[in-house]
User: Fold ADP-ribosyl cyclase/cyclic ADP-ribose hydrolase from Rhamnella rubrinervis.
Amino acid sequence: MPPSLDASSSQSTNPRDNYEVFLSFRGETGKTFTSHLHKALDLKGIYTFLDVIRLYRGEDISPGLDNAIEGSRCAVVVLSGNYASSRWCMDELVKILQCRKDSKIQQIVLPIFYLVNPDDVLKEKGAIWKGFQSLKKEFRHNQEKVKTWRDALIQVANIAGHHVHDGTNEATFIEAFVKVVSSKLFDAALLNIPKDLVGMDSRLERLKLCVSRSSFGDVHFIGICGLGGLGKTTLAEAYLKDMSGQFEATSFLANVRETCEKEHDGLVKLQKQLLRDVLKGEHTINNVSEGKGMISRRLCCKTILVVLDDVDHLSQLQGLAEEKIWFGYGSQVIVTTRDESLIPRQYEEKEYIIHKVDELEDSEALQLFSSKAFKRDCPPEDYKEHSAKVIKYASGLPLALVVLGSFLRGQKTTDEWEDALDRLMKYSDAEIMRVLRISFDGLVETEKNIFLDIACFFNGHTIDYVMKIMDSCGFYPKAGIRSLLNKSLLDIDHDKNRLRMHDLLEEMGKQIIQGEPRKVPGRRSRIWLEDDFYHVLNNETGTEEVEAIICRNIQLQKISTWRGFSNMKKVRLLHISDVYFRRDRCQEIEYLPNELRFLHWGKFPLKSFPRSFQPHGLVELNLINSSIERLWDNPKMEPLYNLKSIDLRDSSEIRKLENFSLFPNLEQLILDWCDDLEEIDPSIRVLKRLTSLSLINCGSLKSLPTSMGGLKSLKVLNLTGCSSLGDLPEGFVRSDEELDVTGHELQSHGWKNIWNTIVGLSCLEQLYLDGCGLRDGAFPDDFGCLLSLKYLRLGYNKFSCLPAHFNRLPKLKHLDLSHCPNLTSLGPQLPDSLEWINVNCCKELHTFLDPLSQCNLQCSTIYCLDCPTLVNRQGSKRTAITSLGRYLQNPPKPSKRFDIVLPGNEIPSWFTNKVMGSSSISLPLYPNWCTNNCMGFALSVCFSTNTALFFSELVWEIKINQEDWGFGHVRWADEEQLDWDGVLHSDGHIWLLYLPRDAYFHSEWHNKMFDHIQFSFKSLHGELVEQCGVRLVYEGDVQELNITARDEPYEAIQQPVDNDSEDEDGDLDRTLHL
Assistant:
């Protein structure tokens, strides 16, 4: 395979260009000045071409660089003393100057005279010309080429350049030079605005013109104001992207209003994000005042660009950007808001400008509408007149155009369009809310209910949570939410798996509930304001029109009577929680709505439900942190056949749970942290559909009823922290699929029947035994009888090895052995079926995946974080590359990726394309690169960190020709299975990753011409990247990989003193119960 020639930093802003900067240099500066310059450009996000061979070997052989030079917008020429002695450097210089003159390229050329006097170059003397004389002798028979080189030297010396002399502080020089490069590269015309953002380029130009004409001081506060739905946030995002190169750092604080309203300490969270974005690290802030002080101290010397999105209160400005002295000279703070009065109320007139976002021009509105209604830039001829009517009524509001276009896309004929437009004619073109309501009116009843519930209660909540509640209400949420998405009435934040509704649509939904003219609270279908809730109860004005109440921060002392519930007989959804709970101040509750399907009452104040409460449609009951002692004290109570889930965690008054016959179809029962729970009634045997029973930290529970052996459907049993629990009954549970007895020493008194029970569970698929005190010899001889076992957790135990018969578990796929301090070796005991293994923090482990021994294990995911003894004996590079080779020789699933993470300070030498000190690397793609014998990509990164490492924060971003490669970010494999919140104590760790062709290739890649593919390692905390590398893997490379593994040297990893060993049990308890 041809060698890689380049390593690059962040992406280009213009897809027509391959790179933003081309670095031309002599090998003598490669490991010093040039490498520091490259890293600084990389950190600034400037996509830079660097000749890797010259950098690391000091060689000058760099053929085929013409395309890279032509594709770069800027060339930086580092003219050092020996630069002119290299024919390759001189050829590069000639090519660079040709591109500078080429009217189609117009390349920017920035010379750096490194320890070379520019005047000496012009006068043809000094070190650089001495080097040129040796080159001149070598090519004395080619005077034409020599003359071309000489002219190039004279020409570049005449370009205004930058001088590094003996007294220059190189760090300061590089910092200033990178700013120069950024300013040269800046070009608004090169901004890559997505095609569907119609009118954004003209809006951006108007905003920039407005900012440039302002005459205020050094720190600019810029208010972007206008009606909701006009695209203020999108404009701010485009401005940030366009101008980011002019600042040291940027931060985009999205949804400020929503974060402050819905999240505890939301403003503190935003303060932390601002500091993290600018300073690249986590900061502890206990309150808003402390955060204000930290921001003003830490950012006052930083020139930054900050966006505060959707601000609606002065306190938000005061907490995030109170004064201009908080930020360095030249900083800009963008504030998007519907209330432009906030800006002059906070800042002096000379400190700010207001930029009002206008509606779209008719031509732009037509283009946006057509893209949604017809999937094209303009409407078909038959629909032009109809489209013009829509444009008029939408009044240039982008959100309205998107919603209406999506709505009308479903109308198949012109007659259907006429009918839809006739409905549109009923609304005034000035009333945007009513325009948006047209799509709402087109929904079926269940979709309307879902829309209104999300608008009033669940905007920003997780999809799973909303789906569960809507399902309990009988609204068919899968189809309903999909319909709302299709009609642009709802969106999904895929990164956080949350449902998002534009705030304008949310307001419309709430206005529909409130009615015009405004209805009194007791006659609305939904109540979400605490004051309305108090009014309805205290004045007993509730009616059967009320369907749902969600008020999560009520104060019981403000409620004088609960009789108001007696009039609200149709409530299906009730979610309330008391902030300051005082049971002695609570009035007696004599009635609750019997139509309830979902009841969530945090800190429920009563000992039991009123006898009149018989909710036969109830699906989910949640009474977290309640005073409940007994759910129903009514001998005439009829069974609740629809009840599927009960959650009573933290209800400390419960002593005995009984009368399970009242909910015979229960599937989930959660009793965690019920401190006084002493007994579970034998009637639990009637719960034939119970799949999950959780009893975490029920410290008073003495026993379990023998009748539990009849729970044939039980899949999850969690007994973590049940410190008083005695014997488990013999023959207990015959067909459960998951058992968790975490926190118990199975060898201690009272647990003698546990193993007999476990090994008899022939259908057991998942088994959790973390922290059970298991030692050598604790495993029974018939442990291998668990023929269905797939998932096993044995972390935080005391054994030094696994029993030999462990390999009789034929279906075991996941094995967690993390934090086993005495574990020393793993080998033949591991079954061949294993796919995922975790031995993190097994610091005495010295033998595992031994490169010098026979090993049939073909795990696709291997975690060995903080295992210094292992790599000191076997070598990290050798272990990693051998494991990859074993996997590639006979992969159990060709479409499955491979991951291994272990301590190390250097990536394996098998990665021929690698770069030092950069988080990004670019791999050139040659013709026919995507052949049938191409197996996939192999990536490796060596990184170090002193912060807590959460695996979801470390990802690879991959782009092909500057476009997303289509598979999203590549995260750690099975990160949800990995329990790790510790600090890495060794100098560094290696993550080696293989992405197979069968899962990560597009068929169209065969027929398209691509120049390169770029890999960028990203993390939230800015982990220090020592090295990263990439390699295209072909079938013939596997043999070379095996040879490399045998010859690969290995480095010793220093093992630190473990100061926390004495408190291991305390740390274990905290870890198990996080």
